[in-house]
Amino acid sequence: MPSVVMDGVRTHHFAFTPDRDTAREVAGLLQERVPYRRLHDRLADAGALQLSDELVRELVGRRLGRRQVYEAGRWLAEHGTRREAVKVGIVLVGVSGSERDRELLLLLGTLEEFTLYAVVALLRTQPAGEGERAVYELARRVSGWGRIHAVERLEDTDDPEIKAWLLRDGFRNGVMDEYLAPLAATTGDLYAALLDPEPDEALVDGAGGILAALARGEGGPTTGLSAYGEAVPALARYADLAASGRATLQRLDHLLTIRRHLHQPPGHWLDRDVAALRRRYSDVIGQPRWTELALAGVQDPEGVGFDLARRCASRLGLPILPQLVARLRVDAADDATWQDVLGLADTGTLVALAEELLPLDALACGPAERVVVGNGHERALELVVSELEWHPGLGLPLIRAALAGRGVRARRCGLRAVRAWLRPPEEAVAWVRAAHASEPDAELRTDMADFLDGLRQAT
Predict the structure, then answer these.
(1) Would you call 266 exposed, middle or buried from its count of C-beta atoms within 10 A (0-12, 13-18, 19+)?
(2) Is a pLDDT exceeding 50 seen at residue 3?
(3) Which of 159, 186, 158 lies closest to 171, judged by CA?
(4) Which domain of life is it from (predicted)?
C-alpha cells in the first residue's frame, strides 16, 4: 500500500505510536553533523509520520542551530531519493525555514506522498495570512489524500474566495468526498450561500455533491447529515433549486442519494420536517424529465455516462434489462452491470448470458496462494455462481470455472452450488476432487473433503 494511503488512513482512523527512539537517534546524527547521505540512509526506512513530532521536540531540547537544521532539511528535501527521508527533510525545513521556501514546498507538496508534510511546513514558514493562501494553492493542485490533508488545514478560513471554492470544488477528492463534505458545509456556509436568489450552477452542483456525501457519510469515516446543524433547511433549499434548475445525471444521482437517506433520518429531526422533505424530494424526482434523462443515458452501451445513468435508472426502478445486456456485450467485465442484471433477469437468462460472455476457460486458471480481489470477469463469475446454490441443475460450465478459479470466494460458491444438487453429476464431483487437491485455503479444503467423504459414505 502506498505510503500516502497509509499516512492518510493512520491520521484519520488509527492512533500511532510515536517513534521516540528513532527521533533521539536522528537528532543525535544531526547534532554530530554526520554526512547527509548517512542521515538520508538512516531515514530511508523510518516512518516519518511516527517520527516527525518527536524529532521536532528533540531538536528543540538539544538547541541545535537553526541554520544547521535548515541545511540538513533542505538537502534531504532536494536530493533525497527515498520518500520517508524526503518527508523528514520537509519537516526540518518547516521548523527552520522561511518564506523563501514557498516554491520548493509547493513543488514537493504537489506529489501527494508529501502534501501533508508540505502543508504543515507552509503554515510554519510563511508570513501571517500567506500560509493559508499557499495551502489553498496547493490544495488545488492535488486530488487524493493530499487534497484531504490540505483542505483540512483550511477549516478556520475567513477568506471568501477559499470558502466559495470549498463549496464548488474543494470538497471533491479521489478518496471519498465524505471526508471533506462536513468541513465544506460549515466552513463554506453552505446554507447561506444557497439563499442567493440566483446561485450559479457550480454552486448548485457543489451543494448537491456535499449534501449527498453527507448522506452517504452517516455512520461512515466522518460526520454526516445528523451533525450538520443546517441540514434540514439546506436540503429543502437544494430540492427547490434542483426542481427548477437544469437536469443532469449528476443532480439526479444526488437527489436519489439524499432521498434514500430520508428513509432513515437522524433521530433528532422533527417528524414534520422529515415528512416535508420526503414529499419534496419525491415530487422533484417524480418529474418526467429525470426518467427521460436516465433512459437516454443508457441507450449507448459505450457512452461515457452509461455507468451513472445505469445507477440512476436502477434506483428509479426502470426496466432497462435490454440496455444492460447490450452493455455486457460491449464489456463483460462490468461487474456492476452484472449486479443489476441479477436483479432484473430470471436465473436461466442470467446463467445463459454468463456462459456466453464470460471467458470461462481463462478464468479456470487455478487458485491463488493469497486472497485476491479479482478483476471484473472474476467478480461477475462469483456473483452469478453464488445464485446457483438456489437453482440446482443450472450452470455447470460456470461451476467448473469457479471451482478452478483464482478467488477463494468463487471456489466456495462453486462448492455450495454442487452441494445443492440432489445427485451431483460425476463431472462436478470430479471438479471438486481436483479443486480439493490444490486448495490453499484450509477451511475450504476441509469443506471440500467433508463433501467428498459424504458422497463416499452415501454410496
Answers:
(1) middle
(2) yes
(3) 186
(4) Bacteria
* Distance, CA of 441 to chain centre: 29
The string of pLDDT tens digits covering residues 336-367 is: 999 999 999 999 999 999 999 999 999 999 99
Q: How far is Cα 86 from Cα 83, in angstroms, rounded to an integer?
A: 5
Domain edges within the chain = 1-154, 158-286, 361-458
Question: What does the buried/exposed string (b/e) look like for 169-202 if buried means 16 or more CB atoms within 10 Å of the residue's CB?
Answer: bbbbbebebbbbbbbbbbbbbbbebbeeeebeee
Nearest to 442 by CA among 411, 416, 405, 419: 411
Spatial separation of the C-alpha atoms in residues 343 and 129, rounded to whole Å:
55
Max Cα–Cα distance, the chain, nearest Å: 85
In sequence order, the 6+-apart residues with CB closer than 8 A to the CB of 273 are 232
443, three cell numbers: 477451511
DSSP state of 127: P
The closest of 359, 454, 374, 453 to 411, measured between CA atoms, is 374
Contact of 208 with 202, CB cutoff 8 Å? no
**3-state class percentages of the chain: helix first, strand second, coil last, to nearest 5:** 70, 0, 30
At 241-279, the pLDDT tens digits run: 999 999 999 999 999 999 999 999 999 999 999 999 999
Average pLDDT over residues 17-30: 91
Residue 155 phi/psi, 5-degree rounding, is: -60, -35
| 344 phi and psi angles, rounded to 5 deg | -115, -30
Q: How many CB atoms lie within 10 A of CB 449?
A: 14
In this structure, what C-alpha cell is assigned to residue 51?
Answer: 517520527
Burial class (CB in 10 A: 0-12, 13-18, 19+), 218: middle
Tell me the three cell numbers of residue 184: 465544506
pLDDT interval class at 9 (50, 70, 90): very low
Q: Say which residues have a Cβ less than 8 Å from residue 145's Cβ, sequence separation at least 6.
A: 4, 5, 7, 8, 112, 115, 116, 173, 175
- Specify the pTM: 0.89
* Residue pair 42/182 in contact by the 8 Å Cβ criterion: no
Q: Which of 112, 205, 203 is nearest to 163 (CA)?
A: 203
C-beta separation of 46 from 80 below 8 A: no
Looking at residue 370, what is its pLDDT? 65
DSSP string for 212-247: HHHHHTTTSSS--GGG-TTHHHHHHHHHHHHHHS--
Q: Report the pLDDT averaged over residues 432-443.
A: 96
